[in-house]
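Crash report, auto-generated. Payload:
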Amino acid sequence: MSALINVPETAAPGDILDIKVLLQHPMETGFRTGPDGNLVPRNIIHSLRCLYLGEEVFAAELFPAVTANPFFAFTLVAEETGEVEFLWVDEEGVEHREVRTLTVG
Amino acid sequence: MTLTRRHALTLGLALPLALQIRPALATPETMRAAIKGFTGGAEVTEGGIELKIPALVENGNSVPLTVRAESPMTPEDHIEEIAIFNEINPLPDTVRFRFTPRSGRAEAQTRIRLNGSQHVTAIARRSDGTFHSTEVNVIVTAPACRES
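Recovered output after restart:
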C-alpha cells in the first residue's frame, strides 16, 4: 500500500501550509456483494493522523462513506524545522507511517 | 396447485432476488440519533460553518467535499472537531475531522460516497463546547452502492 503525500519542503515561521494526502486503499464498505453472492468483508482505513514536531495537527475518523483511495487536504502552521508524520491504520490492523521533513527558516 | 415445470422455473428465478439481503439504510431519524451521539444532546446553532459540495453530482462514488468553520484557531478558542452526517447511506456517519491550534485553519477536504440525493449536515464543536451546523442538499444522478 502506498500513499502520495504533499508537504511543502520549505516555509517561513507562521505560514499556513496546505497538506495533501492520497492513500491507496480499497475502502471495502462491507455492504457490497462479491461475485459469489456473499458480502465482501468490510475493510476500511478508520483513522488517519498527522503529527508535526510530535504533536497532533489534524486527524480524521473515516467511515465506509469515504471513497476508495481516500484523499484529504488540510493545513498546518509552520513553526520550526521538523518532521511531519502521517499515521493511518485499517481494520486488518495494518499500520502505516510516512514521514516528511519540513524546513522552516 | 400442481407444481409444473413453468412454476418451478419462475420460482427458481425469483428466489435469489427474494433472498438478497439489503443492508438497512440510514434515515433522517438515524442521522438525528448519530448527531445526538456527537453533540450529547447539546444545542446546535446554525451558521459559522460552511460546507461545500457540488449541488449536482453525477457520480455518487466520488463526491468532493470541503468544510470550513470560522475560528481564530487559538489555544483559547478553536474548532476541535467537525463531523459530517448523511441521511440515506447505509451509515449516517460519513467522516470526522479533528483540529488543533496547530492546524491554523478549521478547514479540510475529502471525497465521499453518496447513495442518492440527500441532505448532508456538518457540525463543528468549538473548544468552548458549543456546536455549530450547516446543511446542504445534494442531487446525485448515479448513486454509490448500486453496482454491487
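Post-recovery validation: The helical segments of chain B are 5-19, 28-39.
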